[in-house]
Specification:
The complex is a heterodimer of chains A (about 260) and B (about 130).
Chain A (H helix, E strand, L loop, with lengths): L4 H15 L2 H9 L13 E6 H6 L3 H12 L15 E5 H4 L10 H4 L2 E5 L7 H5 L5 E3 L6 E3 L9 H5 L6 E2 L23 E2 L5 H5 L5 H5 L5 E5 L6 H8 L2 E2 L11 E4 L1
Parallel strand pairs in A: 1-10
Antiparallel strand pairs in A: 1-8, 2-3, 4-5, 6-7, 9-10
Chain B lengths: L3 H15 L1 H9 L25 H20 L5 E3 L5 E3 L2 H8 L3 H12 L12 H4 L1
Classes of the chains: A alpha+beta (about 260), B mainly alpha (about 130).
Chain lengths: ~260, ~130
């Protein structure tokens, strides 16, 4: 991947400062202000091109790993305790209402990446008794406040996509490699994908999008007619998971 | 008073037993001493002042941390601007502990003495873990 403009300016600036001596560089590096150039949108959305996922079958693992690593997602090695923010699901399971039994096996078993859909009308938000999960007004991200979650798990029951996981056990000993810039969770809270809101605030794309070399994941502003996601939605036939429920997911799939 | 001496002896025994923790500590010569807090912080270039006056931080740092938490998580407002215009990221681990890296003496000793148990560290990472 080449150097984009933003990184070029960053490096050029730091190199100049390097001439002024190491302490100055240290001081600048330390004063990490997150809001200097955040990525903003009126409505964040993601388009997943399953054709590209199919062409690169080993690629899903990399993007799942990238997400789970930066967010300190534990691996309990036990499906009953599993915590997942983004994962692989067979097509016929992820889209059971849009699949049919006579389709070729390769099509029914096509692995589809699934994650929190950041719905327009999120049922999880409706049931949360403490407002620990809510839809952010400014960009539609369905947020989690782990400080406020009391672990009642109503949201797990309400989410039709299984996008939420509960920490039945203390997750920290089960994190392979702890990422210092992101907190872990404690026993008794629910977690899920947050569209990498902490990375957006720093001006970075979501971890899964950044990790996807095949260009299968596109992230952008649904309200901006010029955005890449809108272009893809205009020029391709796309589907969403369980559209009949009226939750209006923000994650679209090209098949 | 009937059986007055029994009552008085009983009272003396009761008061003695009830105040045993105080006698015990007084005899051992500990307990009431203020904790030995080390406030010295490492030398960070460009950071010779805290985000708020020391007086305020001493009494109200927990309030400030709660405000920061809500502003960042719920309000997406991540930058703190001090009265004299300095800017800081509202972050316990990246801003506070960047200077106050001696958490065990700077934070824990006083918290232990006051018997307060903040649960920040069940999720947020202590400097030792981060190293």
């Amino acid at each position: 991947m080449g150097l984009d403009r933003r990184n070029f300016i960053k490096i050029a600036g730091l190199s100049t400062l390097g001439l002024a001596g190491k302490p100055a560089v240290d001081a600048i590096a330390r004063i990490r202000l997150p809001e200097e150039a955040p990525l903003t949108a009126k409505r964040w959305a993601m388009v997943i091109d399953l054709r590209k996922c199919r062409e690169n079958p080993d690629c899903n693992e990399a993007c799942i790993h990238a997400c789970h690593k930066v967010h300190n997602v534990p691996d309990f090695k036990n499906p009953k305790d599993e915590i997942k923010w983004i994962w692989e699901e067979r097509f016929e399971h992820a889209f059971h209402d849009q699949s049919q039994e006579y389709a070729d096996e390769s099509h029914r078993e096509l692995p589809a990446l699934v994650l929190c859909n950041h719905c327009d009308d999120p049922p999880c938000v409706r049931v949360c008794p403490t407002e620990a999960t809510w839809k952010r007004d400014e960009d539609g991200v369905v947020m989690m406040d782990w400080h406020r979650c009391i672990g009642c798990r109503y949201c797990l029951a309400a989410c039709p996509y299984g996008a939420r996981s509960f920490n039945w056990r203390d997750p920290r000993p089960f994190i392979e490699e702890i990422e210092p810039d992101f907190p872990t969770r404690m026993r008794g809270v629910v977690e899920k994908c947050t569209f990498c809101e902490e990375r957006l605030a720093r001006g970075e794309m979501p971890a899964c999008v950044e990790a996807c070399d095949a260009g299968a994941l596109t992230f952008g502003d649904l309200e901006d007619p010029e955005s890449r996601v809108r272009e893809l939605l205009r020029t391709h036939f796309t589907i969403r998971r369980k559209p009949g429920l009226g939750t209006q997911p923000s994650v679209y799939y090209i098949i | 008073m009937f059986d007055g001496w029994k009552i008085i002896v009983g009272l003396i025994i009761f008061i003695t037993l009830a105040t045993v923790p105080f006698w015990y500590d007084a005899a051992a010569g500990k307990g009431t001493d203020a904790p030995d807090i080390r406030i010295e912080t490492k030398d960070v270039p460009g950071r010779d002042q805290c985000v708020m006056p020391a007086e305020y931080m001493r009494s109200d740092h927990m309030e400030l941390l709660n405000e920061w938490r809500d502003q960042v998580v719920r309000g997406n407002q991540r930058v703190h601007v001090t009265a004299d215009g300095r800017k800081y990221s509202r972050s316990l681990t990246n801003t506070c502990l960047d200077c106050h890296s001696n958490k065990d003496t700077f934070c824990d000793r006083c918290h232990d003495y006051m018997s307060v148990k903040p649960y920040c560290w069940e999720c947020h990472l202590e400097p030792e873990v981060m190293k």
